[in-house]
């Protein structure tokens, strides 16, 4: 871990970011990744918590007080989705996996550095780090509230692109483990630690608790979920590949429907209908919107709502009430105006929306009829106009 200051401000928010870089990440790469990834992610969350509209990421002078007071970046080098407790190599591997142990020890180490005076511990992470947030939130809460008696500290979580599904893959690769088999074996190899409440629901299959929709109902700390409805990591895990055939698109479309259904009981959610993976560490993270609400606005509203629940707080005149759940209504991949651009996997060129629809294997005449327009109009319609029309159909 890398603390950047000695004392937290009394009553402040401590931000802990769990990094990710995939299961193949090596220890020596961590220092090279941490600077840019952390700087982006932390400043973004800080902007949300403190109501700032913009922070110059490269302005160290402006951000020095922030960096020196209330943040911690934890590099991902354990390759265990932040769940491992294996402190000694087993007979068949030379590795240790101590992700969960690291998270707990980080919290312990922060106590004498000022965590004891903080009002909130915000645990956030992207991809495997996002899954790690879900897995570790209640353990961190129990550690602070029960072990140390610090019940005045609120624990919150932000999971970015860490909500995965345990579904059958599109194809089975004979040269690698299926995702479910990998998680089953990983739990044993890592000596994985999952939520005890979740494990009670799956006593014979505790590995199910690595999947957000299985763990979420058992969480006792509030969690904000960001998830692309067509997550690239989920597609990779499902071995569906870059979508270029109708069969692939059919499978991916069902994946989006399955993800949407898995959110039925999530109270704080931002889920755009896009093909992408992670958002907090990307430079254009403020651009994605649902119903004209950006992710920073959604996070800020969630933070305000939590403050409202703890104290007397009223909405300013003219301000809209908080929307806690923002899920794309349109079910088409890439039908959100603010989606990251999609590129042809063979040429690398950016694809327009008409090309995307054709790659679904759709009969464009049927699409035109469904939209109430002729085929010539459809083929000549610009991207924005077509997206508006599709969104209106969805609403």
UniProtKB/TrEMBL annotation:
Transmembrane portions of the chain: 6-30
InterPro entries: PAE/NOTUM (IPR004963)
Top-level taxon of the source organism: Eukaryota
Assigned keywords, A-Z: Membrane, Transmembrane, Transmembrane helix
GO molecular function: hydrolase activity
Family: Belongs to the pectinacetylesterase family. Notum subfamily.
Stated name of the protein: Uncharacterized protein
Species this chain originates from: Timema poppense (Walking stick)
